[in-house]
Amino acid sequence: MNDICKVEQLIELLTGEEWESDSLPSGTEKWLEEQDLLNRGEELERRTAARIIHMYIRTVLGVKDVEDITPAYELRDLFDCRVCANHIAQVYMRGIMDVVQIGELCIFDVHGKVTREEAVSYVGKIKETSK
User: Fold this and answer.
1) Is 32 helix (H, G, I), strand (E, B) or coil?
2) Is residue 130 predicted with pLDDT exceeding 90?
3) Which residues, 6+ apart, have CB-to-CB distance to 105 below 8 Å?
4) Of 7, 50, 84, 99, which has the fewest beta carbons less than 10 angstroms from its beta carbon?
5) Is residue 126 predicted with pLDDT exceeding 70?
6) Are 83 and 46 within 8 A, CB to CB?
7) Which of the 8 DSSP states describes residue 15?
């Protein structure tokens, strides 16, 4: 069974440490937001995963953003969350997070939930990206 991943579980997968306190884990202040602390026990949405992953690879791993994100415009819901659009485009362009195909339409499914298995897969893809 694919359990839905919690926000804190993705962060634990990225940091390799268990999140035990009521504050952001040490060293994450530059790439996490206060909403991650407030929503740490909530089910992880794809748009939140995209933001966390993008900020992690950019800030912690020093991976530069893809400059031309126009291929990501094929995602019909890319701009449904304007704040998330660049985060989504970056993880999509790097092949970290896949699209959802509905007939001939490609969407990111910004409000879709991330399973634990998917989160583990994203972390594996991040390791490949950062080589």
Assistant:
1) coil
2) no
3) 76
4) 99
5) yes
6) no
7) H
Q: Which residue has the tokens 């972390």?
A: 123
pLDDT given for residue 25 in this prediction: 85
pLDDT tens-digit map of 43-75: 999 999 999 999 999 999 999 999 999 999 999
**Distance between the two ends of the chain, CA-based, in angstroms?**
32
Nearest residue to 116 via CA among 44, 15, 53, 65: 44
Q: How far apart (Å, rounded) are the C-alpha atoms in residues 27 and 34?
A: 14
Find the helix or strand (DSSP H, E) in which 53 lies. helix 46-59
Q: How big, in percent rounded to 5, are the helix, strand and coil portions of the chain? A: 45, 10, 45
Give the count of beta carbons closer than 10 Å to the beta carbon of residue 87. Answer: 22
Are 106 and 74 in contact, with CB atoms under 8 Å apart?
A: yes
On the 0-12 / 13-18 / 19+ scale of CB atoms within 10 A, 65 is middle
- 75 forms beta bridges with 106
pLDDT higher than threshold 90 for residue 127: no
Structure tokens at 2: 């694919």
| Structure tokens that stand for 27 in this block | 């060293």
